[in-house]
Amino acid sequence: MSEIKILPAETYGLDFISGSYLPEGRDEFYLRNTQGDNPLRKWRNLTQNEIGILEKNRNRCSNWNLIKVEDPFNPELISDSFFHGLVRIGATSSNLLKYHDFTLPEGISFSRIISCDIGSHCAIHNCRYISHYIIGDYVILSSINEMETTNHSKFGNGIVKEGEEESVRIWIEPINEAGGRQVLPFETMTTGDAYLWAIYRDDKKLTDNLLKITQNSFDTRRGWYGTIGSNSVIKGCGVIKDTKIGNSCYIKGANKLKNLTIKSDETEMTQIGEGVELVNGIIGYGCRIFYGCKAIRFVMGNNSSLKYGARLIHSILGDNSTISCCEVLNNLVFPYHEQHHNNSFLIATMIMGQSNMAAGATVGSNHNSRGNDGEIIAGRGFWPGLSSTLKHNCKFASHLLITKGNYPAELYVPFPFAMLIDNTSTHQREVMPAYYWMYNMYALERNSWKFSVRDKRVHKEQFIETAYLAPDTVQEIIKALDILEGLTGAYYLEKKGDSQALQDFDPWNIPEKLKALGRKILDSPDSYPDFMEFVRGGLYCNFIEHSKQSVKILKIPESRKAYLQMLTYYGVTTLCDYCKGNIPVGEFVKENTGKSNGDWVNMGGQLVPSAEVDRLRKEIGEDKFKTWDEIHKIYKEWETQYPFEKAVNALNVLVYLNGGSDLEKNTWDSFKTKVGEIRNYIEEQVYKTKKKDYTNKFRGITYRNPEERDAVLGKVEDNSFIKGTREESLKIREKLNKAVW
Fold first, then answer.
1. Its pTM surpasses 0.85
2. Which of 106, 396, 713, 726 has the highest local Cβ count within 10 Å?
3. Using the 8-state DSSP alphabet, how is residue 237 labeled?
4. Beta 606-609 vs 600-603: how paired, if at all?
5. Coil, strand or helix: which one is 338?
6. Residue 739 CB contacts under 8 Å (≥ 6 apart), including other chains
């Protein structure tokens, strides 16, 4: 049966709201009249002379009495167009509007306008169908096939309107393809919001109230018009439907834009380019989407990009991220994610940001269960290398580098800053904890610097921690130390004839006596020469890979030493940063010793004590928040408290390093001395890591001589980041000198 309806011609452009959805005593324009930058414009009717000029210029209208204009109005600038319903046209003049090299005269030509408000000094040409839009000032619209708004438009937000069934609500299903972690998109959503909603699924009061808060954060009345912000340019597009577009937005050649909020303003302009199809989503400020991208049921954070045919489906992408040429399905990705290659897949994961995926990496594309309900969770700094293949379910600590290889089983890697290796000669997996600190300091230091300097956001909705040593990673380091020490102790007992401890070894529940034994051995290697020789050869464990194969942990003494250096460096420099020479460190220690902020949560890139997150969850469950804006104020409070909470965390780390004893002046001075030495090590390693590019003979085979190489690459001594590292060393030494007890 045909769905085409036959309507009376005189209703064209009218009855946008009708029946029970139109409040008594109101007309269908009552919501429209509240929209736009200037809803109090002075409109007037056309004069008979103006109507005559319009008709002479081949314009047609169902009812000229419904056309309103604002002075100054020049009817000569409108030609070959059709008008239906209430159309209001702002001031016009005989000027040109130019964007880059694209220039059009003000006015309207060869277009069909249905019940729209058009701002002052707009150029609208060759637009076949524009219906129920409020258009700002100085807007260029050219060669658009269809642009319309329905009376139940939601602009990408996961709400239902008056009279709609729950089944029409648009959900996003991140992390798990089976939909068990589904969340509702909304225009101010951050990755922190998505984390809060998707992770704590066992908290039914929380999830129920988040749905209610989202629904109540928006006006559910029917009749809101789509909007196009002032100074926007839209040209050469197919279909734009139920879309809200901010100021200074540039859209060219899009195939389809439907049910979207596109945030843009003069400080962070969003651009959408050729061949894209975007449906059911929220696009943040300063985003760039070009060249055939497809996105469906998605949220993009501020200053993020989709390029070159990327597919983003059922996913939430954090700020400052770039995805090109690849497939990203059912993911929650925190800020600073990079994925550039057309043969990489990211399926059903939570990636905690500051991450990079190499060509050929397939993360989560194969399932180990009977259903599509697997997940992968990776801490920040996740880097799966060339042609690495991971299966569900996996969990990884922060800053993990995965080398090329097929990883056929589930993985749990609790060691941060590690390298996971597929050893094809032994057909086994190997892990080197603290790899970055020992062998790739340049990348570690440069990435933290790079993320901070590349943050071009003007609208910073949520604080993002970019330092690689922070409360989340140091708690992972302490957990890793427990495992290394406990495993060493278990192997020692096994060598002494007691194999039970090794057979029962559980990384989630390590007896204190076992950790103490391993710590004693690793602290006194000369007392256990034969056993330490065995440990240096690597220890095997069965808790990293779900298979019959054991995984070998490499360089345990060296990685433990590296982890202890990292904790020392973090603890001292963080206290120095907080005290800044204004607060005696001893005073801070005296006032805050014994305080503990416990475990920390990476909530969308913002690090928060888990107790604070639990408190927020409880208050949301108790219905203390009515809108997301109120919840976001809590995030801002956390941001304000963060330097202090981080300093308390650093103090606890130093107490841990001090064997649980309180910090005293001589201990603090000793730690400061160590940090001075560690800073020298960092500076030296950054230089050495980069220097390898110049001393490796094979790196020089494409150059005729060193002079040609230096002309192309620059001298290593002149590298801007290396210079910056040296400057940072001077600042840190100055901080150490000022941080008196």
1. yes
2. 396
3. E
4. antiparallel
5. strand
6. 572, 575, 576, 579, 581, 585, 672
DSSP 471-496: HHHHHHHHHHHHHHHHHHHHHHHHHT
Q: Running DSSP on this structure, what letter comes out for residue 545?
A: B
Tokens 């202890």 sit on residue: 564
State both tokens at 270.
Answer: 């969003």
Give φ, ψ of 215 to 5 degrees: -60, -40
Band of residue 364 on the pLDDT scale cut at 50, 70, 90: confident
pLDDT in tens, 442-461: 999 999 888 888 888 999 99
Of 316, 283, 280, 307, nearest to 296 (Cα)? 280
Residue 672: how many other CB atoms lie within 10 Å: 21
Asked whether 665 and 741 are in contact (CB, 8 A), the reply is: yes
Question: Which one, of 715, 691, 672, lies nearest residue 441 by Cα?
Answer: 691
Q: Is 294 helix (H, G, I), strand (E, B) or coil?
A: strand
CA distances from 244 to 34, 135, 275, 338, 566 (A): 15, 10, 19, 28, 48
CATH number, span 155-346: 2.160.10
Running DSSP on this structure, what letter comes out for residue 36? S
Q: Which residue is listed with tokens 């019940």?
A: 115
Long-range contacts, 432-436 (Cβ 8 Å, 24+):
432/553, 432/554, 432/555, 432/559, 433/480, 433/484, 433/553, 433/554, 433/555, 433/556, 433/559, 433/560, 433/562, 433/563, 434/558, 434/559, 434/562, 434/563, 434/566, 435/401, 435/559, 436/399, 436/401
Domain-wise residue ranges, the chain: 1-148, 155-346
Spatial neighbors of 428 by CB under 8 A, at least 6 apart, are 549, 550, 551, 552
Task: Provide the terminal-to-terminal Cα distance of the chain, rounded to the nearest Å.
Answer: 84
Q: Which two tokens stand for residue 118?
A: 């058009």
Name residue 479's amino acid: K
Name beta bridge partners: 661: none
Q: How far apart are CA 323 and CA 317, in angstroms?
A: 9
Mean pLDDT value of segment 498-517? 94
- Here the tokens at position 345 are 């897949």
